[in-house]
Known about the structure:
This protein is an alpha/beta fold. It has helices at residues 17-28, 40-52, 69-81, 104-138, 153-157, 163-183, 226-235, 244-253; strands at 8-11, 32-35, 56-59, 86-89, 145-152, 188-195, 211-215, 218-222, 266-269. The chain has a 7-stranded parallel β-sheet, sandwiched between helices. The protein has a two-stranded antiparallel sheet with strand order 7-8.
Amino acid sequence: MNKLDQKVCLVTGAGRGIGRAIALKLASEGGRIVLNDIDAQPAEETVASIKASGGEAVAVPGDVTADGFAEKFVNMAIDQFSGLDVIVNNAGYSWDTVIQKTTDEQFDAMLDIHVKAPFKVLRAAAGPIREMAKKEAEEGRRFNRKVVNISSIGGLFGNAGQIGYAAGKTALIGMTKTLAKEWGRYAVNVNCVAFGLIETRMTEPFENEPNVIQVGERQVTAGTSPEFIGFLNKMIPLGRPGAPEDAANAVYLFCIPESDYISGEVVLASGGLVI
């Protein structure tokens, strides 16, 4: 039997990169996936990949920061699959600059995507989770549910030029530890994975000027200079950046029954890099 057989798993930001790898990993272990991306096409492509492998999945495209999105997302899981077992708050991006050049819009955007969006999803899930846990307790059954929030090495140690991103990712760690205490009574494990250098479009090397990517209606710079990547690779004890599949495997560890007695923890998936 697969580790996540018939478990209903919600994954935000799953059209590309790490989120896509997480969705595919959980589906490969039997999870029924409700996934999101701000862009409909990559979200549907992830759904198609899961279905092509014999899995079950449905997409809920949209901006995770938008009013009403969280309720729509959670309701889709309940309406489509009649359950709610795993929540992975993965959606995010970086919009970087030093503090004196950071605008209010820029800072607010980082808090909206990395703090308020996960908060809204978890708040929307609170009622259904409490009701399911209460019913299961009355029937003498107990099922552990899982929340995995995605932070960053910058959220743990800070990173020059990422005042908003680091602030948001640090706040998510506090949210993780608080919710682990609030939801333990409902047999919910709440943990966090903080990533180091993972190869995605956000960290893709550039030659002269940073890459520009589209995030909804907003264009933001992204990418990393080859020189800095080379420096980081020398600092990473395992000698290489992580692939999206490496990131997904770390999240998977917090989703399976073997982690049923682990809660409120932060695991750094960075190849040993500590900055």
